[in-house]
Amino acid sequence: MQPSTSYSVILKKYEEALLSGLSEVYPDETDHSRVSNILIPHFRNIVQKVTSEVNKINGNSVDYDSFSVGLESSLPVSPFREIYEDAFVVIDIIREQFQREFFGLHKNRQTEVLLKNEVLAGYRKLLADKYFIFDKRTLLLMRDPKKFLGQFRNEPIPPYENGTEFVSKVLGCRIKKLSLLHIDEMMKVLQFPDFSEETKRRLRLALMQKGIVDKKTLKQLTIKGFAEMQFPPFGSGLSIASVALGERPAGGVNGLDVYDLNIIADELDLPDVYNKDDINETANSLEYYELLFARHGIFNYETLMAKPVNWYRSSDADFSPIGKAGMFFAVILGEPCGSILIPTLEKVAVKMGFKKPDKQEIFQKYRNILSSFGIVDRNTLMSKTTTWYTDTDFPPYGKGRALFALILGQACGDITYSLLHEVADKLEYPDRKTSYLEVLANAGVFSSEELFKKGTRWFRRTGFPPYGKGIRFAREILGKKFPTVNLAVLSEISEYLFV
């Protein structure tokens, strides 16, 4: 459908909605005529401004929020608002709905681009954290492709059941049997470079663990000795050689020679000779500590804090050759760390240069993820069933429960409507009172007088999406259970929402 056609349809729909809303608020013909004469021209003026702006940009992205603020400032002020308060409630609601639909396509285009980039970054991070895959070479050359494919198919990549499900999500299709063709297509979607600087840096760190810090120390090794040496977490020297050379040597170990070692050294930017003092300094450098952390999938603040404190106290937290976590942290901090607590991890993060993510930035990502499912405020969040959240996948975070645990900062059990309200609060969606008022406004109730005019029978029989029939909606508003909606209940609702 062409934009101009959409605009005219939207304009007609919301102008009719505005007239209908005013009729509800002002049943008296004289009052209705007086108010309409003021507000209808004003509404058309708003529409004209919106239409003009969208036509001017002709379908390109729109700074919706800034433009919305501009429209807010164009609304008449006193004495109009004081005299016609109820009418302006109507026009504000209709204008808000109009703007949402009018700009929906343009705003969604922007959101989709941002969301796609965030999702792809999340997928890349999962591969980096679990398999140390940063580019095409680390994916295809660091291990035997046939063995890797068989392992990748079935091994869990949380929150995904296995590699096949993971690639299916990335490609957006169902895969019955994962093949190298699917892997190749996945690399294109994830926009993997051929050989990244991050891979070079991590390979240099892996070599450093074995005392290989320059071309001289590399060439001191025999070809076979280097090829069979283990460089965790990347595997053998043959694996490192394959990544650096850009191909697996024909004949395996027998396919390597001294010339290849020179190429490996050049590809990894190894110096000719490393100063001895620099070697000692490097062995105690942050880069060296990063490698020891990386063995346990720890790369940044989030992954450091994601592991329970008890894990760092356990025998699993082995950072050899330095030792267990307590000794390792003492070396990093330059002082005994005592019992490992959350503040200890915070200090380690500072020393390591692990930047603590900005809270607003993180929560905006969560809001963007939810918005891709049409969830943009408290009411749309509540409109989905709890089962829907349990079963729905929110890449790259996993199912609803996993996403909500991140938002709330704690593990969550069953998803309930109470928990959804907690999520809405954390995401700074409009407060409950505002949401309830919007629901009532959609049902034609804009004031206490209008609520009592509709009456208890109407309230009981009316549906108030997303909350359901009146009894359920009333219980939601007041936060308690009662057998029916009577005048006493309406009075409580009125006092809470309109006073």
Report on this structure.
A hairpin with a 3-residue loop joins strand 5 and strand 6. The protein has helices at residues 3-25, 29-57, 64-74, 80-83, 85-131, 136-140, 145-154, 163-171, 180-189, 197-209, 215-219, 223-228, 237-245, 258-267, 276-283, 286-294, 301-306, 309-313, 325-333, 342-352, 359-371, 378-383, 386-391, 400-408, 417-426, 432-442, 448-461, 470-478, 487-498, and strands spanning 318-319, 323-324, 393-394, 398-399, 463-464, 468-469. The longest helix is centred in the N-terminal third of the chain and has 47 residues, at 85-131. Mean pLDDT is 75; it is low at 1-7, 57-84, 105-109 and 278-283. It folds into six domains: 3-112, no CATH class; 132-189, no CATH class; 197-282, no CATH class; 284-352, no CATH class; 359-426, no CATH class; 432-498, no CATH class. The chain has a two-stranded antiparallel ribbon with strand order 1-2. Helix 1 (3-25) runs antiparallel to helix 2 and helix 1 packs across helix 5. It is an all-alpha fold.
> Proportion of β residues?
under 5%
Q: List low-pLDDT spans.
A: 1-7, 57-84, 105-109, 278-283
Average pLDDT across residues?
Answer: 75
Distance N terminus to C terminus? 45 Å
Strand arrangement across the biggest beta sheet:
1-2
Net shape: elongated
In short:
With 499 residues, the protein is mostly helical. The protein has 29 helices and 6 strands. The chain has 6 domains: 3-112, no CATH class; 132-189, no CATH class; 197-282, no CATH class; 284-352, no CATH class; 359-426, no CATH class; 432-498, no CATH class.
